[in-house]
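ESCALATION

Customer reports they have been waiting on this structure for their group meeting. Please prioritize. Original submission:
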Amino acid sequence: MKNNTTEMNELNSLRQRVAELEQQLAKQISDEVIIQIEQAKQDWETTVDVLPQLICLLDEQKCVVRANRTIEKWKLSTVVGIKGKEIHHLLHPDCNSMACYLKTFLTNAWPRLAQGESAEYEIADTILGRHLQLEIRPILPRPLASEVVTLPNSFAALVVHDITERKQFERVLQWEQLRNEIIIDRAQDGFIIMDLEGRFGEVNQAYCKMVGYEYEELVGRFMSDLDVHETAETMVARLSRVTQTGADQFETKHRTKDGSVIDLGVHINYVEFGGDELLYTFVRNITERKQLEEQLREYSDHLEQNVVDRTRRLEFIAMLSGHLNSILDLHQLLAELVNKLKQSFGFYHADVYLIEEETGDLVIVEGAGEVGQQLKKQGHRLSAEQGIVGKVATSNRYFLSNNVAQTDIFFANPLLPDTKSELAVPLHKGEHVMGVLDVQSEQVNFFTVEDVSLMESIADQTAIALDNVRLLADRQTTIFKLQELDRLKSEFLTSMSHELRTPLNAILGFSDLLLEGIDGDLSPEAHNDIQLIYSSGQHLLIMVNDILDISKIEADMMELVPEFLEVPEMIEDVLSVAESLVSNKPVKIITQLPESLPLVYADKTRLKQVLINLVNNAIKFTSKGQITIKVELGEMLPLAIYHQQLPASNGQPVAAVRFTVIDTGVGIPFEKQETIFERFKQGDMSKTREYGGTGLGLAISKQLVEMHGGKIEVKSQVGVGSEFYFSIPVLKKLEI
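Update from on-call: job pushed to the front of the queue and completed.
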């Protein structure tokens, strides 16, 4: 029993001793912890608070245990104000979406912290304009002596890095990289960086694609390795010049990996970079452009040649047309044509067939060279539709064969054994075919579409010339016949005039004797009858004389006998005739002459005839009133008619005397004034029977005035009267 009590006492004493030891240990631990904590606080202030990063210690509920002073520098919160709050209060209160992202991050990262793992997250605080990198780490149990930056109840440490500047720099780098990629790597033009020896240091994909090499195959190689034209020495010499000029551009050719050659346009620029001398070079594939330029050059040359050929052909057509139209002989015309065609265009042969009206056959009229003359001498002919020529004649369309060996209708001629191509075109006037123009060549495919057009144009011109020759021949025949008829008419009129004048003179002579009473007195009735015979004879004689004069003029048999005349004397002669004509009419004849007039050089008889005709015409159509004969100095006349009789005049303008006959008669309608000077025409044909006359007086007067170098004209008004006037040249006797 005693033993049990003793044991119990010892046990209690032991328990009391343990409790005392525990109390001592607890006090000792508490003091050490406090010391450690104080030390940790000092270390925090001297180390963590001065860091640029934001550092927060979190408990297991994700609330802030402590934060360093950076939170105040960033103006997010205060060290005291954030303590005990959830971590998302670090962000701007208006940025709810960012707080949501942060909560999600912590929720996902928290289980990993318990296992000793860390987590990172980047977040952009758009309100603050910061870009943040979050790093959260677990705080694991460690010996207290080593935990200098932790506080009690800390579960994790959140480190926030402000990476705004880094992100901005990275963005700049990204933009630069993208720009370089777009400008260089994605460019269609090639880009090369090389040294002064032409060694490639950098190339873009566009250039790699141009030459067919990979990037690795080009870097380190020399440009001269690919250049077709330039050697390494000439390339280095060219590049060295760039260092002096700063830039150079040229065109060259590069051989690609597959052996083909491409054209390149090269633009080289010199630059110093980081102490190195570099050449940055842009190259462009201009192969397609060069091909187009070559095609354009060939087309331009072809077009220029076509223009030259066409111009030559047009000139030939113009020359030939003018030449052919000047030839009036049919055979000479066609001979000129075929020979010029062969000579100008290098034809093997050229000939012309005309259709024979009687048989309808095509007969060769002219051919070029000796062969043409032989064919013409043989009278070579083709029937309708025989050969190419016959086909053209019947169809009235051209026919072209550039290989006669393949043409069924080709007619081979033994005299032309080398014919390989043949072109025939019709000589036609509308639908009427006159013949065929045929040209041949000893070459296959010799003729072109332009040749067809040319030959058709030449054929048209030839057809016109042929038609003109035929028309001219017909016209000459007609003119000859008309001239012969006119000659016969003039001879007949002259002969008849002479035959009529002989009995008329006898009638007039004997009538005059009877009227004078030489053969005895006459009864009044007989005197009137004989007076009528005499007057009718006089009228008939005037008509016969007019017919004789106009016949002489038309037959060019009328000759002037000019002399120097006194105008007043001649006017007196005219008055003596005129006054006898108005003896039975209430018409007065007056004259208007200046005090002095120069001599006129004219045929006195013919000039008096003109004035008498005009005065007689005025008397005929004036029933009452007056007739005025007016003479005055007129305008200058170009004297040409007298150049043979008066060489001194030399066709120079001379002074003139103007003669005018004015009446107060019936007048002439305006529309008739141009025709009254024609033969057998009067102002009013209905008046012919009333006033009589042949209608030749004015026609003869006009011809006689013009033979004197003058011109007769008229002014007239119906019911008022008429005015006829003309001028005669004045010459000095000294010039004779």
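Sent to customer with the following note: The longest strand covers residues 625-638.
Escalation resolved.
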